[in-house]
Design brief:
The protein starts with 12 loop residues before the first strand and ends in an 8-residue tail after the last helix. Helix content is 22%, strand content 22%. The strands form two sheets. The protein has a four-stranded antiparallel β-sheet with strand order 5-4-6-7. A three-stranded antiparallel β-sheet has the order 1-2-3, with no helix packed on it. The chain is globular. It is an alpha+beta fold. It has helices at 61-70, 72-75, 93-102; strands spanning 13-15, 25-27, 32-33, 42-46, 54-58, 81-83, 89-91. A hairpin with a 7-residue loop joins strand 4 (42-46) and strand 5 (54-58).
Length: 110
């Protein structure tokens, strides 16, 4: 199912940013993953080839998503994931990839 929204199978969809906001916003069947509804801190986890996972902590989801967008060139091949304050998966690697591509970023071939 190429090109299908990875959130659709979970009963959710990618949302446009609310007026006055930009960046990646997600909706799932229970909540909107945005700074107003997701309790911080938020963790960005990634794994370089053969290495142990690395984690960086952000005060909120907005800051974590901004970091993903800024560093996508490096992170896209390192299985990035966004985790909540309990370190439970909020946004998977596949969801991040689909959102970046939808935002107009072309995936790099490196």
């Amino acid at each position: 199912m190429r090109g299908a929204d990875p959130l659709a199978k979970r009963g959710g969809s990618r949302l446009s940013a609310p007026a006055g906001r930009s960046g990646l916003w997600f909706h799932n069947e229970t909540d909107i993953a945005d700074p107003m509804t997701t309790q911080g801190p938020i963790h960005l986890r990634w794994r370089a080839a053969g290495a142990s996972p690395e984690t960086e902590t952000f005060p909120d989801l907005d800051a974590a998503l901004d970091a993903v967008e800024e560093r996508w060139g490096d992170l896209q091949h390192q299985a990035p994931q966004i985790l909540d304050h309990r370190k439970i998966l909020l946004i998977s690697t596949e969801q991040l990839k689909a959102a970046i591509i939808e935002e107009g970023e072309e995936p790099s071939q490196g």
